[in-house]
Amino acid sequence: MKRFAAQYVYTLTSREPLRNAFVEVEEDGSVLRIGPCEEGEERMEGAIVPGFVNAHCHVELSYMKGLFRKGTGMAGFIDQINALRDSFSPEDKLAFLREAMDDMWEQGVVAMADISNCDDSFAVKAAHPMYTRTFLEVFGAHPAECQEVMHRVRALQEKAQALGLDAAPTPHSCYTMSPDLVTASSVAGLESGYLSFHSEESEEEEEMMMFGRGPMWDNRKANGIPTPPVTGTTSLEYFLNRILAGGLRAPVPGHVLLVHECCLVPEGALLAKKVLQEPFLAVCPLSNLFIHKMLPPIPVMRESGIPICVGTDSLSSNDALCMVDELYCLQQAFPEVTLGELLEWACLNGARFLGKEDVLGTLEPGKKPGLVYISSCHAARGEASPRLTAQSKSHRL
Fold first, then answer.
1. Please, are residues 51 and 369 in contact by the beta-carbon 8 Å criterion?
2. Sign for the pseudo-dihedral over CA of 330, 284, 282, 220
């Protein structure tokens, strides 16, 4: 049995922390008991929280760290990723990938929703103590490719499952896929009960879908790539309609993660709740700032009532895969959101999306959520609840 005590303990059964409290765990990490510290008991200055769930990551792109120009917009970012994708050896890619996984684990990430375009990450994830659900991202803008693309992704799924990974197809985005492929990959992914979709990531995306213009539209035209249909509606509405085109009836069952949603409006959130039985939102604020210098509309998201999760995206669009950095960014931009609520997004809601809330997400007897210590976390003078600082770091206990 081990015992850890801190100035604050966030069990996340409530958004308010316990003050001057301890957590006792078995050697295997199972929570035994939580309670107030004894008088004079030594405690850490900071917070103990459950393990983080990184709700959106592309860990296979970790070799791209530090190679990208910032602020290029989505069209410029896509050009860079296409130019650099094959610029490293398989051995180097694997080394960067393994290092990124180990770093996240040491920082307290216990589970991850990871995007894969190939099998580079499979063996590492299968052997790692971190739980991952692998979303096998589907691309294909040429309508005639649909059947062939789905055949390839099914083969990739079999390879992942043979290694013991939870894995299934998932559509990438509205603009990299033909309408039929969006539908086919969505229906295939929902067979597993889970889907992850890049949605409304930038104003460029919305301009392309609604009006058939803008940098992303011009980029695809210049490179001879088929453009998506101009619907006059948002890309989110287009996606939801493509799911229903597969014969599924609303509310469509399954956990559907809408990633980024930087252009989400209240009407779109209402439609998502109508069409999807269990929608979730994943925010990756530092990636959004890196690429197109904007943040997701957190007030709209909170008002919608759709559970919010937190991801880091990849090292092609981020300086680090650090959940505390993402939370600090959100706290500074939206100071009305308490640390307790931010941790609920980063721990509990991610566990709910992955269907792991019986084990992860909260500090409760019998669960094995992992214990994480966050340093330099304290309440300012006159404030009741603590806040992160620029010096805050996390590490696994």
1. yes
2. positive
As given in the structure block, the two tokens for residue 262 are 């930087």
Tens of pLDDT, residue by residue over 307-319, are: 999 999 999 999 9
H helices of 66-178, where?
73-84, 90-106, 122-127, 146-162
Q: pTM of whole model > 0.90?
A: yes
CB 269 within 8 A of CB 306: yes
Compute the distance between CA of residue 361 and CA of residue 5 in angstroms, rounded to an integer. 19
Tally Cβ neighbours within 10 Å of residue 204: 25
Q: Give yes or no for a contact between 135 and 168, defined as CB atoms under 8 angstroms apart.
A: yes
* Spatial distance between the Cα atoms of 345 and 331, rounded to a whole number of angstroms: 12
Cβ atoms of 259 and 292 within 8 Å: the answer is no
Contacts of 21 (CB under 8 A, 6+ apart): 5, 6, 8, 9, 34, 35, 36, 37, 48
Three-state DSSP class for residue 274: helix
Name the strand (E) or helix (H) holding 196. Answer: strand 194-199
d(C-alpha 79, C-alpha 255), whole Å: 31
The fold for domain 52-321 equals TIM Barrel (3.20.20)
- Single out the residue of 269, 249, 270, 250 nearest to residue 261, CA to CA: 269
The Cα 37–Cα 21 span in angstroms is: 5
Instruction: Measure the CA–CA gap between 149 and 235, rounded to whole angstroms.
Output: 22
Break the chain into its structural domains and give their ranges.
Answer: 1-50+359-397, 52-321
Q: How confident is the model at residue 74 (pLDDT cuts 50, 70, 90)?
A: confident
Measured distance CA(18)–CA(192) in Å, rounded: 38
Element (H, E) at 53: strand 52-57
Taken as a whole, the chain contains a residue count of 397
Question: What pLDDT, in 10s, does the model give residues 361-395?
Answer: 999 999 999 999 999 998 877 677 899 999 999 99
Residues whose CB is less than 8 angstroms from the CB of residue 270 and which lie 6 or more positions away in sequence, other chains included: 304
Whether residue 250 is predicted with pLDDT greater than 90 in this model: the reply is yes
Q: What's the CATH architecture for 1-50+359-397?
A: Roll (2.30)
180 Cα distance to chain centroid: 26
Looking at the predicted structure, is the pLDDT value of residue 94 above 80? yes
